[in-house]
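Hi there. Long-time user, first ticket. I'm pasting a complex I've been working with (about 1303 residues overall). I'd like to know whether the download I got is complete or cut off, because the file seemed smaller than I expected. Thanks.
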Amino acid sequence: MLTDPIVLAGRTAPSRVLFGPHETNLARRREVSHRHVAYYERRAAGGAGLIVTETASVEAGDRPYERAPLATDCGPGWAAIIAACRPHRAIVLAGLGHAGSQGSSAYSQSALWAPSRVPDVVSRELPMEMEEAEIGRLVDGFAAAAALAVRSDLDGVEVDAGQHSLLRQFLSGLTNLRTDSYGSDRALLARQVLGAVRDAIGPDRILGLRLSCDELAPWAGITPEQAAGLARDLGSLADYLVVVRGSAMGTSATRPDLHTEPGFNIELCRSIRSAVDGAGHVVLQGSVVDPAQAQRALEDGVADLVEMTRAQIADPDLVSLWRAGEGSRIRPCVLSNQKCRVRDNRNPLVSCISEPRSGHETQDPAVGGLDEHALEVLVVGGGPAGMEAARTLALRGHRVRLVERSSRLGGALRSAALVGGRARLAELADWLEAEIRRLGVTVETGVTATPEDLGASVVLATGAVPGPREYRIADGAHVLDVVELLTAVENGGLDDLPQGPVVVFDPVGDPVGVGIAELLAGHGRRTAIVTQDTVVGTQLALTGDLADANTRLRRAGVTLHKNALLREACAGRVVLEDRFTGEQREEPAALLVHCGHRLPDRTLALARPGSARAGDCVAPRTVHEAVLEGRRAALAIGAAQAPVGEAVR
Amino acid sequence: MTGGRYRHLFSPLRVGPITVANRVVFSAHLTNYAVDGLPSEQHAAYYAARAAGGVGLVITEEHSTHPTDWPYEKLIHGFQRDVIPGYRRITEAVHAHGVPIVAQLNHNGGQSSGMYSRLPVWAPSPVPDPMFREVPKEVDHAEIAEIVAGYARVAGHCAEGGFDGVELQCSHSSIVRGFLSPATNRRTDRYGGSLENRARILLEIIDAVRAAIGTERALGVRLCGDELIEGGTTIDEAVEVARMVEATGQVDYINTSIGVATSTLYMIEASMAIPPGYALFIANAIRRAVRLPVVGVGRIKDPVQAERALAEGHCDLVGVVRGQIADPDFMAKARAGYATEIRTCLSCNQECVGRMGLNRWLGCIENPRTGHEAVPLPPPGPRPKRVLVVGGGPAGLQAASTAARRGHQVTLFERAATTGGQVAVAASVPGRAEFLDLVRNLLAECRRHGVDIRTGTEVTAARLREEAPDEVVLATGARPQPPHWAGGLDRVVDVRDVLEGRAAPSGGVLVVDDLGFHQATSVAELLADRGCRVRVSTSGMVVGQDLGVTLDLEMFTVRARNKGIRQTTDEVVLSATAEATGGGVVLQVLTHTTGAMAEVRADWVVCAVHQEPEDELWHALKGAPFPVHRAGDCLTPRRAHAAVIEGDRVGAAL
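Hi, the file is complete. Here it is re-exported in full:
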């Protein structure tokens, strides 16, 4: 089923799993880079059936982000990708699109194109209304890009009428207010584009269509009912149809984070597939990260193929492991969006919290392979850094003993999974634990390592301790560290804490403070959150959760204290100060939860300077850095070199 | 020219081993012109243009001294030897104009993240930066030695690359700043605690760098006089550090600054809301304590201000950065006696600071060449053309100026009695007057290039066809368009209605901010000043959100609090109806995050919303026997930079 081949336009994909088009920032200027090639090749090697490359703009004026590929610059890169992937039998298609009013004028320094002068909700920039000349250029641009893809030997193209696309803007009553034939028949442009593309590629190449089938804006947007008609109309022109949802309203709709249930498009996809009624293949998309869910969707007739993009960023071998019956070994995607959602002005490269080699295939060594000499290695600390170090060492043939002070493995990852809405993070801890046990690592919990225990080969991954509290704490104030609070919640001890209103102090703005506030409000506590920023949860912009998080907080009745400095915690209240005016005010607080930055636990490191260290005990950061440095420390020990995370010179 | 109006400005000065011909410095600033960590051709062309324009000394943007330092994508990785060819390209291009050039060296320390380096961030203590919010690794003594060696290595690269000296960045964003500042240095070893200890790394770097560059090159140190943060460095300690620096006997000049780049940036790159020369007190205090030449900075935007800063003894040299981003010929024009021809900086921060913060190349709202100096201009066409420009706002003026400069015969028609379009309107509110310099500068350019400007002249399509020009440029702008919910009410007006005097709201006013820029905040302040009770409402998360990128948000927030302006967010206006009695307006307002509906009453509603293009001539001229182009708001209404860029592009392509 999921691993069965499927034939599209006479071409056979080795599995029914699609690696979908997504922003990577791996481009060099606007060209496909060698990093792109390595990135896609790795997924092809792992069994991906179809790979759709990062959406390339079909018109030079469209540059939605700095490193957005431009089709006319992609020929050699596309050819290199297919040359790398075809030996693995994967089908490779070029993603083609135009972002229209959802683009950016910052790089083109030209007016954005749109069906009508409707500003994008996020950028608020007013686009220009396309006239005949621009429409002609757009259709020609799609055709020319498709022709180039075919000349570059790709198996076909996928046309984007999904969440971020000019074609969707034409299809939608939200953005198409035209009175000409492109307004009276909003699908006219999409039909013209699909027709021109088919003419350019011929019948024996694959033409895919990514279509927003629910804009989540029923007052004027595409509804699932309208989409059924559109899918019949447009889907018949394509070999497959990817059912997605979303519009400019609700920016997190297409690739939401872990707050949204995996497989959220299943019912939408089922209804579209029954509307299309066998006229073309239908692809399920939408946070599908579990192959069992994907398999079930195929068995239930929801779809003919399943897009699993983030799941294959987390584990490129997803398909081959599933095919081999080793599904439990697949490194889980926890949908944090922390490293793979890269639509950000800083141009971060695509990667993964738990597979840091993703996006860095040309730089980072592969983890597999045996080291020459098997060593006895002690890993101190069973959090993500320690477990990844142990996993890597064991994979490479070393005898590993891991000691963990507490009664269970997982470290800060277990705490993080207790934060409101973030339970999926535990899957990563579970997987790491299962892997190190499978690989025969000797695991000892409840054991505190001492300096005397540290032998020749050791990795310290001892985590963090609470950081300083830079405000006055008066007698009678109840101040609780975030980890203490989470432990209490887990043990059902929240009611044992002082009754009354809770203030969450969040100087960081990451998922923790917001999630703690949600958790407390969910337990019926009157909750307030304090930030020095103008917006709560500023760091959530990167994962796409910023607007949603603020909405959740407002709906949960959490009071938001913005532009506020915490000056003092007293019995029953806290003193806040306005960052701009210096004005002070009091807020009732039976309990203050401190969600500030933490400090490294350096107890063992100070006793044994020069030991390999990884993760929070170097500097408390996120799970990504913990895994990255745990792996580097392990590889360095195997290579008998100085650990990289500690000593890149 | 050492006498006359700019007696001090044009007197030469010895700065250690180098001599500067005048006192203006193009101080270090980020450009985002680096490509793959290397200096680019654009860097060379950019600095060369300012050298050609007569600046006394160029100091380049920072060169990173260590692989752990990579806070933003387009940083020059000075620690790699392959920067040297790019250095040579820069220094040769600047030296061709007889101008000395110094390279700034830096390690940003904890004011960084591991996003690009994939390494822990280094700092004196594990104190997270307020912007990057990543806990740094506390450096040990071996790492401190490595930092010091890194500065020396990069200083060596700079010497090899032909620089006349190096400047140590110890302010803004820097690991040396991190050590100097009690706010970020919590160490208890010999690098923390007393000022002497906190300055130790700086003195070690000075020793190492001087050894690397020898005596033939200049060494400068840039110090922060006031970090404007709690527990941070203030002027007394800065003066003390300056004395220590001088006492080494190895340093040739001291540069100054104010603020911390990652928390008080709005005081470093101050917008027009902060008075010119606001940071000169730092140079003044340091100059009184040391004999070394001292550079003063802080929104010095014309030669008169610069001359005065020197004449009053605040400093020996004056940093003029944005003034020369806007006009590379700043000094040449001053020297030639044409100071009024200088395209003065507006301190609007829209395309320089604003683009920097968003990881984009450095530009300028009124100089379309900034950021494109390395791209040659297209050759002028074979014959001059007769060009008619309709509209005297920024797009029309820029199109006319560019076309006339390229030899075309240009006539510009403006319907109103004066040129300037919406820029003049935008500049008419409190605190925004300097924005009008955009028009003044464009008009000066038009006059210089012989544009025939006819104000008070409305032209029709028929008139344009009669004139039978070679080409027509339409820059006819935009007009206010009531939002769909306005209900045709007289008391629901546009910002422009207020600023242009067609409406005079009083009492309780609701300003609806759909644009997120100066429109809503400007009118709110104006009306509050007139005694109105003002509330600004936005559907977004922040009122005037894009003021954040121009560094205007902090000062607006302070002023708004003082003026009693309320700000509410997450609100969408659904409808407006006339109040039964009292003449006011009742609005149905949805808080979209909660779904809550509320009725809001106001005496007046002022809308900061998108306009519609005035494009009647564009449609009326379809099929005309001459090419017709559009520029600016008549294509689609946007901000001033788009008008200038499009005007220039159209003017250059004729």
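A couple of notes from our side: Confidence is low (pLDDT under 50) at residues 641-649 of chain A. DSSP finds 21 helices and 29 strands in chain A.
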